[in-house]
């Protein structure tokens, strides 16, 4: 049984870097999918691996210090004091608390909306195995004809 693309499972690849087939429940299913995919010729080598999806939490990208700096940098002149003192000056403890509270709010928002953000790369790959596509490799359509004959006068 195939899984959703954002679930962990067995995948196959033609180059050990870009796993493009999967996910599958088992390694054998991934091998079968690769064999029947049309992606490979007899004799081609492919890899299967158990790949763990990298699920991202949007909250991990919130940085309170950067946020406060951006706000200060983008204030219009009407809000800044004449001497340029910061408007949103907070203590390190308040900044740390802002970081925690905003990240909690972002996490709750992501959960409420059922948002599952995944990266284009896997968090990890294990159980890697190399396989050879069954069957005999086809001969090249233009077999070698040997040396070029010399011209006859």
List keywords for this structure.
153 residues; alpha+beta; 2 domains; 4-stranded antiparallel β-sheet
Fold and architecture overview:
There is one protein chain. The protein has 153 residues and is an alpha+beta fold. It folds into 2 domains: 9-55 and 119-132, no CATH class; 58-112. 27% of the residues lie in helices and 25% in strands. The protein is built from 3 helices and 4 strands. The protein has a 4-stranded antiparallel sheet with strand order 2-1-3-4. A hairpin with a 5-residue loop joins strand 1 (9-13) and strand 2 (19-24). The longest helix is centred in the middle third of the chain and has 21 residues, at 92-112. It is elongated, with a radius of gyration of 28 Å. The termini are far apart.
How are the SSEs ordered, and which strands pair?
Elements (H helix, E strand, L loop, with lengths): L8 E5 L5 E6 L2 H10 L8 E12 L7 H11 L17 H21 L4 E16 L21
Antiparallel strand pairs: 1-2, 1-3, 3-4
**Count of alpha/pi helices:** 3
Structural class: alpha+beta
What string, H for helix and E for strand, traces the elements in order? EEHEHHE
What is the overall shape?
elongated
Q: Count all strands and give the number.
A: 4
Strand order of the largest sheet: 2-1-3-4
* Rg result: 28 Å
Overall pLDDT score: 83
Query: How much of the sequence is in beta strands?
Result: 25-35%
Low-confidence stretches: 140-146
């Amino acid at each position: 049984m195939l899984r959703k693309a954002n679930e962990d499972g067995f995948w196959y690849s033609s180059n050990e870097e870009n796993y493009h087939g999967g996910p599958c429940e088992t390694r054998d299913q991934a091998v079968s999918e690769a064999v029947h995919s049309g992606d490979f010729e007899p004799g081609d080598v492919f890899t299967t691996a158990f790949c763990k999806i990298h699920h991202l939490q949007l909250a991990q990208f919130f940085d309170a210090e950067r946020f406060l700096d951006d706000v200060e940098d983008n204030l219009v002149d009407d809000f800044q004091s004449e001497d340029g003192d910061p408007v949103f000056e907070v203590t390190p403890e308040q900044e740390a608390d802002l970081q925690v509270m905003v990240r909690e709010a972002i996490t709750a928002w992501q959960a409420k909306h059922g948002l599952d953000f995944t990266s284009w790369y896997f968090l990890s790959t294990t159980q890697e195995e190399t396989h050879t596509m069954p069957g005999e490799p086809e001969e090249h359509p233009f077999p070698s004809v040997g040396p070029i004959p010399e011209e006859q006068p």
